[in-house]
Design a protein that fits this description.
391 residues; 19% helix; 6-stranded mixed β-sheet; alpha+beta
Length: 391
């Protein structure tokens, strides 16, 4: 059994940044990492643009202007504008080439066809210059940038339709257990509803991973062997839940060994999630998670998700951590490191009740995990604790 820090280091040493690239339409690129610099082929804005609803002025040293027309967003004409003349203009509209400034509508009085100004105005006020945001030939976004919704919107505003990004891995999720039935079916005595695949699917989707396939296998060695063998051949990441302990009907470990998967480690000195397995076979990475839902999700966030981010090209791939003030007291039982479901708010971080590995209710309420290393035995009110921020 190894320490949490050792497990993280072994995974980090084993997981490599992908060199596989793919072209994505900009509408489908959110969450991907740019594999090349994106060069802009236009100025943004491409014309002098009004930043306000107001009036474009042909001079800035007059107090009264003759109103001679109107220009709105999308107009393609360039009306002439001389000294002492003004044109009604709207936000985003092209500013006439003769305009010296735009004054916002709240700062003028309009009587008939005359615009009256009661304050001084500076040249180029409220005019967005050509290329204010980015110039033709500039790098719009650099290689390694994670594309957020604002990022894809920005590239779309530059007329870019496709980007080259690092490919995300294909993922197989395999759940094991005779006792598991799909939600919606009537439970027989001894059965429970299967939630891990739904839970992990939601967690993967939330973090931008969609190439995911799901499989369910009963506690049967031959079936387990066959299903894992197929997954190893067709997927880059294989995530198993359950069947990794040493019970008579836990066949995952036996099958992985028989399939010559290289075991990097098995069992971590942590709670929840002690029976965590990490291994490799050729280009496929294997995580075998405990079957208890809270254990599985904790291991996913701490070990699996950072690995997926790293493979996909993220330079920063672990969940954010910070030191926060505890608003509750907790006494650890045992010598293992612990990941505790907690809520972080303006009053500090509160460790929740219901920390058992089978309990998801506290996880459903949590927005953080409090990490207690092996040597920390208790938490008192106002202690500083390490907090892992959940997505």
């Amino acid at each position: 059994m190894i320490a949490v820090e050792k497990a993280l280091q072994l995974i980090n040493d084993s997981i490599k940044h992908t060199d596989l690239l793919t072209m994505k339409p900009i509408s489908k690129a959110q969450g991907y990492v740019l594999a090349k610099d994106v060069v802009c082929h236009m100025n943004m804005p491409p014309f002098r643009q009004s930043a306000m609803d107001g009036y474009a002025l042909g001079s800035i040293d007059d107090k009264r202007y003759k109103l001679i027309g109107e220009v709105k967003a999308g107009d393609d004409d360039d009306p002439k504008l001389g000294k002492g003349e003004a044109i009604r203009i709207f936000t985003g509209a092209p500013v006439p080439s003769g305009a010296k400034a735009v004054i916002m509508q709240e700062k003028v009085n309009v009587k008939n066809d005359e615009v009256i100004i009661e304050e001084n105005i500076k040249e180029n006020s409220n005019i967005r210059p050509i290329g204010e945001q980015v110039h033709n030939g500039d790098v719009a976004l650099f290689k390694g940038t994670v594309l957020t919704p604002s990022g894809v919107g920005y590239l779309a505003s530059l007329g870019i339709t496709h980007v080259e990004v690092y490919k995300k891995p294909s993922i197989a999720i395999i759940t094991t257990g005779n006792e598991l039935v799909p939600p919606g079916q009537k439970l027989k005595h001894g059965q429970i509803y299967e939630s891990n695949s739904i839970m992990l699917s939601a967690a993967l989707s939330e973090s931008g991973f969609s190439d995911v396939s799901f499989y369910k296998v009963e506690d049967d060695y031959e079936l387990t062997y066959s299903l894992i063998e197929n997954a190893l051949e067709h997927y880059e990441i294989v995530i198993l839940t359950g069947g990794i302990s040493v019970g008579d009907y836990d066949f995952v470990g036996k099958a992985l060994n028989a399939l010559d998967v290289d075991e990097v480690f098995y069992k971590v000195k942590q709670k929840p999630g002690k029976p965590l397995y990490f291994g490799k076979k050729n280009d496929t990475t294997v995580f075998a998670l405990p079957g208890n839902p809270a254990s599985a999700l904790s291991c996913f966030y701490i070990y699996v998700l950072p690995s997926l981010f790293k493979i996909s090209g993220h330079s920063s791939f672990h969940l954010k951590r910070s030191l926060e003030t505890s608003s509750s007291k907790y006494i650890k039982k045992g010598q293992r490191s612990e990941f505790l479901k907690a809520i972080l708010d303006e009053n500090g971080v509160k460790i929740l009740d219901g920390q058992a590995s089978s309990m998801l209710r506290s996880f459903a309420l949590a927005n953080t995990l409090v990490y207690l290393p092996e040597e920390k035995t208790e938490v008192n009110i106002n202690d500083k604790v390490q907090v892992i921020h959940l997505p």
